[in-house]
Specification:
It is built from 11 helices and 20 strands. The chain is of the alpha/beta class. Strand 19 and strand 20 form a beta hairpin. Helix 6 crosses helix 11 and helix 9 crosses helix 11.
Length: 433
C-alpha cells in the first residue's frame, strides 16, 4: 500500500462512518475481509493459536486482536487505542419541533462542538433506531439518510450588526435547531424513521419506533485539498483518523507478536460508560484471554499502549496559542503529547520506544506541550493506563480546527504514523529491564 491508496481508503472510511455505529460496521467489514472472526461477549470463547478475532460492545466500540501464540503472559500485547466518537449534534428523544412556519429537529450538543461551524451546512441524519417488529420482537438497525435534509441557517448580518466585530455566540437551546421543511408539509418523525428502515433493511417489519440514537452530520465528502495536495480535509478526523491508522496497522501486523486495537465510544464526553475507555470493556476482554490473575498482570506488564488522538498543529494565524518550543507542524511527523500533570499518559520510556521505532523508519517525531498558562485536554491514554496499569504513549497527528464540523490534517502524516505502528506491532522487546 502506498500513500495515495492509503489516503483514498481513508477518505472512504470517513465518508462511510457518519456515527460511531457506522464506524464500527466499517471496521468490522475490513476485519472480516482479512479473516478476523467475530466473538460474542455472551458466548464462551475458544481462542486458537494463530487466530484473529474481534468483539464489539454497544455497536459503537470494538476490540480486535491477533493471537499468534496463546502465551500472552510472556509476550504481552502491542496495543493501539483510539475513539470512535466525535463532537456533533444529536437528536433529543422528543425531537420534532414545529414553530414559526417550519418543522425542525430538537438537538443536544454532544462534546465540545465548535457550534458556529455547523451553521449553513448541508446536514443529514444517521444512527441507530430500536423498534418493535410486527412479529413482536425488539430490534435495532442502523440508518443513514445520506441526502442533505436539514440546515441550521445563520442570522443575517442586517439583524446582528455587531457579529463581525464581537463574534456570534450560538445559544445551543434556541439557535442551533436545524430546519427540515415548511410546516405546510406533512412530517411525522416515527413514520419518517420507519420508512427509512424499510428502505435500508429488507428484514425489518416495523410496528412501532421505540427509541433512537441519531446524529446530524455534514454530507460534504472528505477530500485531499491544498495547492499541492498537502491536506486531508473532512469531518470526524478527531478521531476516526486514528481509528483508520490503527486498523490498517493491525491488518499489516505480521503475527509475530500479539497485537490489539481498541476503539471506544464516548471519549468526547469523558469515556464514563460501559463501552467507553473508563469502563470495563478492555479489561473484560484481557481477563478472558488470561486464565489467572497472575497471567493477567504479567500480560499487562509486558504490554504497551499507543493512544492515538489528534494533536493541535501550530496555526499560522494563531501562533501565540502555542508554546513555541513545542508547536507541531503539519506533515512533519506524528506528535508525542506530554503533560506532567498526567493529562497525557506519556512517560520517558514510552517516548523512547516510539522515537526509536520512528527513527528506524526514517521519520521525524514532534512534541506537544500545552502553554503553561492554558488548560490541557486529555485522551483515552491516562484513563486506560489508570484502569489497567499498562505503559502508555499519547500520540497524535497534527490538526487544524479540531472539533470543527470540518477539520484539516496532513496528507503525509497518517501514512507515516501507520508505518511506525506496523513496526510497533512487530517490536519484540520494549524496554530492557
Amino acid at each position: 500500500m502506498n500513500q495515495a491508496s492509503f489516503n483514498q481508503s481513508l477518505l472512504s472510511f470517513l465518508d462511510d462512518s457518519p456515527t460511531p455505529f457506522h464506524a464500527v460496521v466499517t471496521m468490522k467489514q475490513n476485519l472480516q475481509s482479512a479473516g478476523y472472526q467475530e466473538l460474542n461477549e455472551q458466548d464462551e470463547w475458544v481462542i486458537s493459536e494463530g487466530g484473529r478475532y474481534f468483539v464489539t460492545r454497544n455497536d459503537s466500540s470494538i476490540i480486535a486482536f491477533t493471537a499468534p501464540s496463546l502465551d500472552f503472559a510472556h509476550q504481552g500485547f502491542r496495543m493501539i487505542g483510539a475513539h470512535t466518537d466525535s463532537p456533533c449534534l444529536k437528536l433529543k428523544p422528543n425531537a420534532h419541533v414545529e414553530r414559526f412556519g417550519h418543522h425542525q429537529l430538537g438537538v443536544e450538543v454532544y462534546g465540545g462542538v465548535l457550534l458556529h461551524t455547523w451553521l449553513d451546512r448541508d446536514l443529514s441524519v444517521a444512527g441507530r433506531v430500536t423498534f418493535k417488529t410486527k412479529e413482536g420482537a425488539l430490534k435495532s438497525r442502523l440508518i443513514d439518510f445520506k441526502d442533505p435534509i436539514a440546515v441550521v441557517p445563520n442570522l443575517a448580518i442586517h439583524l446582528n450588526r455587531t457579529v463581525s466585530a464581537e463574534g456570534f455566540k450560538v445559544n445551543p437551546q434556541e439557535e442551533i435547531l436545524p430546519v427540515l421543511c415548511g410546516s405546510d408539509k406533512d412530517f411525522d418523525l416515527d413514520k419518517w424513521l420507519t420508512e427509512q428502515i424499510s428502505r435500508q433493511h429488507d428484514d425489518a417489519s416495523v410496528e412501532s419506533i421505540l427509541s433512537f440514537e441519531l446524529s446530524l452530520y455534514d454530507v460534504q465528502k472528505a477530500a485531499i485539498t491544498g495547492l499541492h495536495g498537502d491536506y486531508i480535509c473532512g469531518a470526524r478526523l478527531d478521531n476516526l483518523l486514528s481509528c483508520y491508522v490503527g486498523m490498517q496497522a493491525l491488518l499489516s501486523s505480521n503475527d509475530e507478536r500479539p497485537t490489539l486495537l481498541i476503539c471506544t465510544d464516548h471519549e468526547e464526553v469523558g469515556s464514563q460508560s460501559a463501552c467507553g475507555a473508563n469502563g470495563p470493556f478492555l479489561e473484560d476482554v484481557l481477563r478472558r484471554l488470561t486464565p489467572s490473575p497472575e497471567q493477567y498482570t504479567q500480560t499487562i506488564q509486558r504490554s504497551m499502549l499507543v493512544s492515538a488522538d489528534n494533536a493541535h498543529a501550530l496555526h499560522p494565524n494563531y501562533a501565540s496559542k502555542h508554546d513555541q518550543l513545542h508547536a507541531p507542524l503539519i506533515n512533519k511527523g506524528a506528535v508525542v503529547k506530554v503533560n506532567n500533570n498526567q493529562r497525557y499518559a506519556t512517560n520517558s520510556e514510552t517516548t523512547a520506544v516510539y522515537k526509536d521505532l520512528a527513527q528506524q523508519a526514517g521519520f521525524d517525531v514532534q512534541t506537544f506541550v500545552v502553554r503553561s498558562d492554558m488548560a490541557c485536554g486529555s485522551t483515552i491514554g491516562p484513563i486506560t493506563s489508570g484502569e489497567i496499569g499498562v505503559a502508555t504513549l499519547d500520540i497524535g497527528l497534527p490538526t487544524f480546527g479540531m472539533h470543527s464540523i470540518r477539520e484539516l490534517a496532513g496528507s503525509e502524516d497518517a501514512f507515516n504514523l501507520y508505518q511506525v505502528l506496523v513496526k510497533f506491532s512487530q517490536c519484540p522487546e520494549l524496554i530492557s529491564k
